[in-house]
Amino acid sequence: MNKKHGLVSALAVAMVLAGCASAPTYSPSNSNGSQSLSKHTSHTPKSAHKTSAQMAAPSQNHSHNAFGVIDGQVGSAAHFNQWLANSAQQSDVAKYQQYLAQQLGVAAVPPMHELLTTARSWLVCGFAPYQVPPETLWSSMLPTLRLYHALKTQAVLPAHTQIRSVYRNPALNECAGGAPSSKHMANSAIDVWIPDYAPDDPRLAATQDALCQFWLVHGERWNLGLGLYATGAIHLDTQGYRKWGAQHSLGGAACQQMFAGQ
């Protein structure tokens, strides 16, 4: 009898131990006092919750250039084509490009991977890196692109100058710290930069001076708005004869004359 009782007890202990090994474990009570099963609760990795903007974000391992974008990413043909392949704006991109070519000629239309860039802070602000402006604003870009083409063909700007910020919708402009009356919202302004010119590069100083000279001689006819920035970026628009950024001028004679009195 004692042997039978001992055998039953041993079997009972074994079953309890087996049950403990296979039973789900419990996490401490949450804030509402309920308990959750940690074994049967799975957590979706944070990467699965990324927004489309975050998925399009370039790797942070790339080096940042003077204009604040990441080399080889935003503004490059490869990055743009990746965005375009997953964008609902494919037909709008083609239509906008065709419109500009008809109005200006193919040679005067910059690459769309430059012309559709939005703002440097697109990702932080939760917007796409590229955007086709509303069709009602397409004609506003024509005078500025004519100016840009003239500056490059006359070698005022180097041939490898690139566009890095164009149309910004009002919400993005506000988030990016743009002026309330920014011409970027009207699709009439472009910010350009010269990729291999650092902010203190003598070649940038020469380019600034050539632009200042152009502004002094031809700016009023073009209704040219010219702005210089600490990053080496240059703002161009055709919505008012004005200039700003004297503190970022590298000191050429023409720029000194242009900014005299400021």
TrEMBL record:
Domain Peptidase M15A C-terminal: 160-197
Pfam families registered for this protein in UniProt: Peptidase_M15_3
Region spans: Disordered: 28-62
Polar residues bias locations: 50-62
Compositional bias of kind Basic residues: 40-49
Signal sequence residues: 1-23
Compositionally biased residues, Low complexity: 28-38
InterPro entries associated with the record: Peptidase_M15A_C, Zn_M74/Hedgehog-like
Recorded superkingdom: Bacteria
Keywords of the record: Signal
Name the UniProt record assigns to this protein: Peptidase M15
